[in-house]
Design the sequence.
């Protein structure tokens, strides 16, 4: 299981998340979103942490790619879009599917087959509401996102997803992570790892 800390807007938050155990750092590359970063930020994080895995989060299909390892397709997209990112841009793919879309189980299977490294099932109202439905979905290659925090994390860890994506619930203000909340989150992840 990998932990992705998303909505990173500054180097300090990236450094702290990586120090605490984040497997992937996500930077939103859309300036219309309040908790956005830049390609320059990705480059700076890469310079300091060359082995860190970084995701550029896109709200439309990019025509070029930067230093990120993954491109997260955070908009309605097709299998062809996934293939394009893999073959033309040469990047790994995190494919986001909103839980409100139809046939998400079938769509997830098709996106994995098209080459997505992870399919991230998201419910912005709170993925914990979908726990029973998620129990019916094979978790290989599947990630979860949507209001995951220290209060519901233990319950969601029981699903054994391949990826957990967390963002705004770790903030003290929009775009600034709370180190205390990051500590609490990773303490629970660590306890889960020991029990397993």
Sequence:
């Amino acid at each position: 299981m990998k932990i992705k800390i998303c909505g990173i807007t500054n180097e300090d938050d990236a450094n702290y998340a990586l120090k605490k155990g984040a497997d992937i750092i996500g930077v939103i590359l859309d300036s219309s979103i309040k908790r956005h970063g830049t390609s320059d930020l990705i480059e700076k994080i890469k310079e300091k942490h060359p082995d860190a895995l970084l995701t550029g989060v896109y709200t439309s299909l990019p025509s070029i790619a930067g230093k990120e390892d993954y491109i997260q397709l955070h908009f309605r997209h097709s299998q062809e879009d996934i293939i394009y990112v893999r073959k033309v841009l040469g990047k790994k793919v995190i494919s986001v599917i909103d839980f409100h879309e139809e046939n998400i189980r079938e769509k997830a299977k098709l996106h994995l087959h098209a080459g997505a490294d992870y399919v991230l099932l998201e419910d912005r109202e709170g993925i914990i509401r979908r726990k029973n439905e998620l129990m019916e979905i094979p978790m290989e290659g599947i990630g979860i996102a949507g209001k995951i925090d220290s209060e519901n994390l233990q319950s969601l860890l029981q699903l054994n997803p391949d990826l957990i994506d967390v963002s705004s619930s770790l903030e003290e203000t929009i775009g600034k992570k709370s180190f205390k909340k990051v500590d609490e989150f990773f303490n629970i992840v660590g306890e889960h790892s020991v029990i397993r």
